[in-house]
């Protein structure tokens, strides 16, 4: 059957609502949708690269920094994978090799927040909030689900309400790398980290449930998100926009910009400060689909065989060659976006004042 190009469908998108689940929220994952005129109907914070309490804490800090707590609900998502636990995570590594980045499963992981000093809505679980947001808006402006980190919260929501796939506008995810084995094996620890799909590896069963559900639209960021990274040129542009590094260092509003810049000298920054803009890239092309320059359509599944070196990895096939013995999903994988425009949007968004957004529905350009 002839399949219309994905970009054709993007031109028909009318939904402007999104529910975000993440294991370590980034500011632009929230601000990009707002800048594009979307409504963030909820955020859930889940275990994964961070502990559950740290994921909630990071999200709470972002919403407070931009004074968005009164109009963006914030919930606690999945606090553990469906099946995987510390013991099985360690055992699999003993059999097939250690992961450079182990997230909250790392034995040396240190919790940074405590439940007593963070603010979130504890009246309902994140999966329930996701379901309710989708059901509330299904007849007027269907909600997109945007998931980064483990897919556990979305899998929980599907278990509670299978109609999620029909009532939502679709699913965007961060993760799903493929053809990265050579780079991961050959590269430095940070290159290995960047080419390891920890988001799916931490809960392969949830990822398989979610990625093979019959979504109207399933878009996977995959490899393209590894190609947009910080650089000295970007640092220089951010500093020039502020007038000086001192302005960014002295104004608490720029705390999250400062965490990216560090000293302002790219070569002096740690690997954590120079990671790719993974989540930000997917957020950007979700709300500005004209950023996308190339996509491919595949059948996809996640390897859920525990005694496999590819446990938790995305597998892709051309539709005519997909296996019949396992369930697969239909996904659009983004191959290329307009890099220059992405960086322009990043800078512009950071230098807007979002602190009156909940009251006015608008941001203001910061003047220096």
From TrEMBL:
Q: Which GO terms describe its molecular function?
A: purine nucleosidase activity
Which species is listed as the source? Candida viswanathii
Question: What InterPro entries does the entry give?
Answer: Inosine/uridine_hydrolase_dom, IUNH, Ribo_hydro-like
Keywords tagged on the record: Glycosidase, Hydrolase, Signal
Q: Which GO terms describe its biological process?
A: purine nucleoside catabolic process
Pfam families given in the database record: IU_nuc_hydro
Q: Which GO terms describe its cellular component?
A: cytosol
User: What is this protein's name?
Assistant: Inosine/uridine-preferring nucleoside hydrolase domain-containing protein
The domain of life is Eukaryota
Q: Which family does it belong to?
A: Belongs to the IUNH family.
The signal sequence is: 1-15
| Domain Inosine/uridine-preferring nucleoside hydrolase per the UniProt entry, residue ranges | 18-344
């Amino acid at each position: 059957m002839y399949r219309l190009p994905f970009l054709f469908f993007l031109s028909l998108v009318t939904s402007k609502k999104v529910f975000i689940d993440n294991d370590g929220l980034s500011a632009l994952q929230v601000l990009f949708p707002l800048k594009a005129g979307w409504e963030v109907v909820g955020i859930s914070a889940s275990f994964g690269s961070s502990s559950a309490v740290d994921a909630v804490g990071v999200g709470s800090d972002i919403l407070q920094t931009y004074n968005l707590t009164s109009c963006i609900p914030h919930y606690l998502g999945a606090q553990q994978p469906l099946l995987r636990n510390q013991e099985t995570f360690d055992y699999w590594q003993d059999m097939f090799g250690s992961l450079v980045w182990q997230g909250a499963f790392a034995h040396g992981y240190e919790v940074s927040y405590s439940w007593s000093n963070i603010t979130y809505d504890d009246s309902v679980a994140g999966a329930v909030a996701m379901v309710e947001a989708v059901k509330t808006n299904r007849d007027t402006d269907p909600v997109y689900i945007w998931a980064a980190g483990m897919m556990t919260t979305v899998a929980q929501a599907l278990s509670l309400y299978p109609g999620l796939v029909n009532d939502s506008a679709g699913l965007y995810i961060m993760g799903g790398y493929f053809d990265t084995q050579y780079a991961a094996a050959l590269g430095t620890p940070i290159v290995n980290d960047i080419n390891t799909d920890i988001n799916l590896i931490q809960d392969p069963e949830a990822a398989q449930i979610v990625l093979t559900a019959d979504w109207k639209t399933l878009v996977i960021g995959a490899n393209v998100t590894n190609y947009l990274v910080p650089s000295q040129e970007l640092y220089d542009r951010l500093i020039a926009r502020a007038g000086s590094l001192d302005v960014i260092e002295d104004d608490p509003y720029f705390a999250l910009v400062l965490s990216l810049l560090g000293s302002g000298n790219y070569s002096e920054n740690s690997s954590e400060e120079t990671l790719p803009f993974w989540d930000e890239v997917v957020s950007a092309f979700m709300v500005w689909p004209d950023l996308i320059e190339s996509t491919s359509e595949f059948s996809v599944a996640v390897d859920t065989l525990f005694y496999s070196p590819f446990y938790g990895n995305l597998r892709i096939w051309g539709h005519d060659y997909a296996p019949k013995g396992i369930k697969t999903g239909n996904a659009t994988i983004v191959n290329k976006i307009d890099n220059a425009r992405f960086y322009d949007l990043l800078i512009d968004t950071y230098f807007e004042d979002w602190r009156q957004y909940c009251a006015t529905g608008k941001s203001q350009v910061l003047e220096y």
